[in-house]
Design a protein that fits this description.
- InterPro entries: ABC_transpt-TYRBP-like (IPR007487), Peripla_BP_I (IPR028082).
- Keywords: Signal.
- It comes from Jingyaoa shaoxingensis.
- This is ABC transporter substrate-binding protein.
- It holds the Pfam family ABC_sub_bind.
- By secondary structure, the chain is an alpha/beta fold.
- It contains 13 helices and 13 strands.
- The strands form two sheets. Strands 7-6-8-9-10-12-13 form a seven-stranded mixed β-sheet, sandwiched between helices.
- Helix 4 links the parallel strand 3 and strand 4.
- Helix 6 crosses helix 7, helix 8 packs parallel to helix 10 and helix 10 crosses helix 11.
- It is elongated, with a radius of gyration of 24 Å.
- The N and C termini lie far apart (about 85 Å).
Length: about 325
């Protein structure tokens, strides 16, 4: 009887161990589907998406599947894409840019949402008393470079400027946020500056609005998605007029600017991918995850445009290679 009991106990332990090993094996083989909604196609957002995918692929290999969709700059398309992700019951959503984030938040309160290339989450999501955490099912990364340093850059490179034009899309709340912060910083640096806003509703009136802005000594363009997708049109106006443009990010700078204080959007996306891994594999609570910022910023300039305009660039700037 004792031998029978021992055999039963041994058999029970073996079954328990086998079950545990089976659970562990299933956990190791867990696969995930991640929906990526990118507001519009341009260099910065493309780099953020790529960095995100690379980070998750490095950690999960073929256990992660991506459904990447582009909204072509239309908010209504973002909503349609997000609704599709919800119907497909994806495990996580990456919302690339403000319009995509707003659509994702409106579309689901259950699926984890990570934003990237979003300048200010409080502005984007209408949050009062910002503490650094969105809460609920939302977190992510911000592409906001120090705006006071961008303001200082304007006067460092164009010290004789008396008028500064702010060129941005009125439909992008985070563009307006950046412009307001930079305006305030400029006023503190030089109270005598005249600062004028030039807003376009969409790509159709960029050229005409940019033409009006050429009355200024220098123009500032924030990290604005519509501007980023239309830099050639802006440059076709600004360069012949001899008006220097300070840009909020490197892609816009390369297209139509002379200098920028910029982040690496690839690194930003990669950081977002690492956050996704923590949520999917390690069970991190997204509601307590603080919004992350780019670890480094770099002063960059376009050598050819600076030379044409006779602008002297300090030694701590790095040249951007022209395409």
């Amino acid at each position: 009887m004792k031998n029978l009991t021992r055999k039963m106990i041994t058999a029970g332990m073996a079954a328990t161990m086998a079950a545990s090993l089976g659970i562990a094996a299933n956990a190791e083989e867990a696969t995930y589907k991640v929906g990526i909604c990118q507001l519009i196609q341009h260099e910065a957002l493309d780099a953020a998406t790529q960095g995100f995918q690379d980070a998750l692929t490095e950690k999960l290999g073929d256990r992660v599947e991506f459904d990447v969709q582009n909204a072509s700059g239309e908010s209504v398309n973002c909503s349609t894409i997000i609704n599709g992700f919800v119907s497909d019951q994806v495990d996580l959503i990456l919302a690339n840019a403000t319009g995509a984030l707003q659509a994702a938040v409106a579309g689901t309160s259950d699926i984890p949402i990570l934003g990237t290339a979003v300048t200010d989450y409080a502005t984007a999501l209408d949050i009062d008393d910002w503490t650094g955490t969105v809460g609920g099912n939302v977190s992510g990364t911000s592409d906001c470079a120090p705006l006071d340093q961008q303001a200082a850059m304007i006067l460092e490179l164009v010290p004789e400027a008396k008028t500064v034009g702010m060129l941005y899309c009125s439909a992008e709340p985070n563009s307006e946020y950046q412009v307001n912060v930079v305006t305030e910083a400029l006023k503190e640096l030089n109270p005598d500056l005249e600062i004028k806003n030039y807003t376009f509703a969409d790509s159709n009136d960029i050229s005409s609005v940019a033409t009006s802005a050429t009355e200024c000594d220098v123009v500032y363009i924030p990290t604005d998605n519509t501007a980023a997708n239309n830099t050639e049109a802006i440059n076709n106006v600004m360069e012949p007029a001899g008006v220097p443009v300070i840009a909020g990010e490197a892609g816009i700078c390369q297209g139509c600017g002379i200098a920028t204080l910029s982040i690496s959007y690839y690194d930003l996306g990669y950081t977002t991918g690492e956050m996704a891994y923590e949520i999917l594999e390690e069970g991190a609570d997204i509601s307590t995850m603080e919004v992350q910022y780019a670890p480094n910023v770099t002063k960059q300039y376009m050598a050819d445009r600076c030379e044409k305009l006779g602008i002297t660039v300090p030694d701590d700037y790095e040249a951007i290679e022209a395409e």
